[in-house]
Write a structure and sequence with these properties.
This protein has helices at about 45-50, 95-100, 120-125; strands spanning about 10-15, 25-30, 35-40, 75, 75-80, 85-90, 105-110, 115, 135-140, 145-150, 155. The protein has about 160 residues and is mainly beta. The strands form three sheets. Strands 5, 6, 7, 8, 9 and 10 form a six-stranded antiparallel β-sheet that branches. The two termini are about 20 Å apart. The relative contact order is 0.17.
Length: about 160
């Protein structure tokens, strides 16, 4: 899949509510560049607001990640959290990950020897790196340990 056809990512956040401890789920759809492309509240939250004859008001909207620029590094992966680390769903063409042979199904367990427990961990580690750095990705492939060392490149212009 080329970067032009990259689907948006979905992030869910549980929002506490001071009204008798009710909770709402906010779902934000973001592009790989972290640009919000839509959001919605769970139907339970909307029903609760309707039952109480209240409007749902969003009072504080903040970006969850820094904006993407020409200095933002990336690996070129789509991934999600599993119990043992982060499983690669897809490797995009002509990316640092593809160049070193990362494959869909690989489980990333460490980034530069720092354990990865969630997709947020991996995302933060990559975003905290610099273009041109060569982090060591420790992975499991079909139960066998391996390491690769991609050279981080900038997020493609189409995704900024």
């Amino acid at each position: 899949m080329s970067v032009e056809n990259v689907p948006p990512l979905k992030r869910e956040t549980i929002l506490p509510n001071s009204d008798r401890g009710r909770v709402a789920t906010l779902v934000a759809m973001c592009s790989l560049a972290g640009v919000a492309v839509g959001f919605g509240l769970s139907t339970a939250a909307m029903q609760a607001a309707s039952d109480a004859q209240r409007a749902v008001v969003i009072t504080d909207v903040r970006p969850s990640i820094d904006p993407v620029s020409a200095d933002t590094p990336w690996l070129g992966l789509r991934f999600h959290t599993v119990s043992t680390g982060v499983v690669v769903e897809q490797v995009y063409a002509a990316t640092p990950a593809e160049a070193v042979g990362v494959q869909a199904g690989d489980v990333i367990v460490a980034y530069d020897r720092v354990p990865i427990h969630s997709s947020n961990d991996l995302f933060r580690m990559v975003r905290g790196s610099a273009i041109g750095e060569r982090p060591i990705l420790s992975m499991l492939r079909h139960g066998h340990a391996l390491e690769v060392q991609p050279t981080l490149s900038p997020v493609p212009v189409q995704l900024r």
